[in-house]
Amino acid sequence: MIAIRKIQLIGASLLGALGVLALIPTGTSAAPPQPADKDATVSTVPGMPPVSDPKNLYGETASDRLAPALKDDLERIYVPNLRGNNVTVIDPTTLKIVDKFKVGKSPQHVVPSWDLRTLWVANNAERGNDGSLTPVDPRTGKPGKNVPVDDPYNMYFSPDGKSAIVVAEARRRLDFRDPKTMELQYSISVPQCGGINHADFSIDGHYAIFTCEFDGSVAKIDMVDRKVWGYLKLQMPKIRFSDKPNKNEPPVTEVCKATKGMPQDIRISPNGKRFYVADMDADGVHIVDGDTLTEVGFITTGVAAHGLYPSRDGKLLYVANRGSHKIHGARNGPGSVTVIDFSTDKVVTQWPIPGGGSPDMGNVSLDGKWLWLSGRFDDVVYRIDTHSGSVTPIAVGMEPHGLTVWPQPGRYSLGHTGNLR
C-alpha cells in the first residue's frame, strides 16, 4: 500500500503542473452533432446498434453477454509475433501453445471483425509496401488466404458496420474498406497525425478520436461528414518515472525532458463523456473531453503507459505500463499494470511484473478473471489474475504485440484487439 500511496501523491503533483491546453482546429466548419444529454436516450448514427445503458456503454460486454453465434468458437489467445511473421495460439485452459501459423510481414494486431465472425491479423510490412490482412476463422482457429492491403498497422470498424477502417500509419491516412472484401471505399487524410494508430468512438458514433504517437496529440474524426474536425496537443508533466531497472517500488522519478508525448491506446469512459489516452512518454493517462476536444485531467500510472482495457463490469480500467520510454526497449524493464476506478479516476492498485517485463496489448478473458497481455520486449505473454495481480508468463515468438482473447462478450466489434460494445 505504501507504493500505491506514493504513486497517488506523485499523480497529484503532476496534475498541478498541467498548463494551458492547445486546441488546433482544422477549419471553420461546425463540430459534428453531439447528443445533448448522455444520461438520456442516446441518438446514434444510422445503422449503429442502440446504446442499451447510457451510464455504462460496456454493459453489453459483461461476462454473461456472449453472443449466441460465438458459442462454438474455440477458446484461444491469438498472439501476433511482429518479428516472427507468425501467430502463436494458446489454449487459455491448459496454458499450452496449440498452434503456430505463418501470416504476412510484421503482424501487429489481431482484430475481431464488426460481426464477430472473423479475426483479422493486421500485417503492415514495416518499411515495406506489401502489407496484408490474414483472416482467421474463430471456429477452427485456422488462417485463410492473405488479402493485400496497404499499410494495415491497425484496424477498426465504423459503428454501423459498413466499413473496415484500416489505419495506414506510415501514410497518415485512414482507409475505409468493405468489411468483407477489403475493397477500398474512400480515404481520409490526417496530415498532422504522425504515427496515427489507436482509436475509440463516441457513445453515439458521430466521431472517433485517434492517437498521434509521433506528434504527441490526438485527432478528432467526423464520422458523418468524413473529415478531420481538429487536433489536440496533449500536455506533458514536469516529472515522470525513470525507466531504468530499479529495485524500489515505485520507480524513482526524473525530470521529464520530453517536449511532446507518445500517446498510444485510447478508451472511452463507461458513460461516454470522456476519453482516456495512455501516454508512453508521460507515464500516465490523459483524460480528454471528446465533445469539446480539451484535456481535463491526468492520472499518473507507471513507466510507459500503453494499453487500456475495461473490466467486464465496466467499473475498472486496466493500464498496461510497458516499462520503457523507448519504442524498442530492453528486457526485464519496470513494467506493471495500474488499475483505475472509472468513477473516481483514482488508482486503486498497482501490479508489478515480477522480475521486470513489458506488458503491452491484449484484453480481458470472457469471465473477467484474467487479463492477458503481450510482453513486447520479453517474447512472452502474461496471464494476470484480476483479483490478486499474480502473473503467469508464457514464452511465445519474437516481439509479441496486439494479442486478442477469444471469444469475447458483446454485440459488435469496433476493432483493435477487441473494443466490443
The number of helical segments is 1
| CATH architecture verdict | 7 Propeller
The CATH H-level superfamily is YVTN repeat-like/Quinoprotein amine dehydrogenase
Average pLDDT, to the nearest integer?
91
Derived from helix and strand composition plus strand pairing, the structural class reads: mainly beta
Strand order of the biggest β-sheet: 1-17-16-15-14
Question: What is the name of the CATH class?
Answer: Mainly Beta
CATH fold-level label: Methylamine Dehydrogenase, Chain H
Could you give the count of β-strands? 32
What count of structural domains? 1
Radius of gyration: 20 Å
Give the end-to-end Cα distance, rounded to a whole number of Å: 34 Å
The portion of residues forming beta strands comes to 35-45%
What characteristic shape results from the CA principal axes?
A: globular
The percentage helix is: under 10%
Could you name the ranges where pLDDT drops below 50 across 5 or more consecutive residues? Answer: 1-39
Outline the biggest β-sheet.
Answer: 5 strands, antiparallel
Keywords:
421 residues, mainly beta, Methylamine Dehydrogenase, Chain H, 5-stranded antiparallel sheet, 40% strand
Overview of the structural elements:
The protein has 421 residues and is mainly β. It has one domain (2-25, 54-406): YVTN repeat-like/Quinoprotein amine dehydrogenase (Methylamine Dehydrogenase, Chain H), CATH 2.130.10.10. The protein has one helix and 32 strands.
Give a quick precis of the structure.
With 421 residues, the protein is mainly beta.
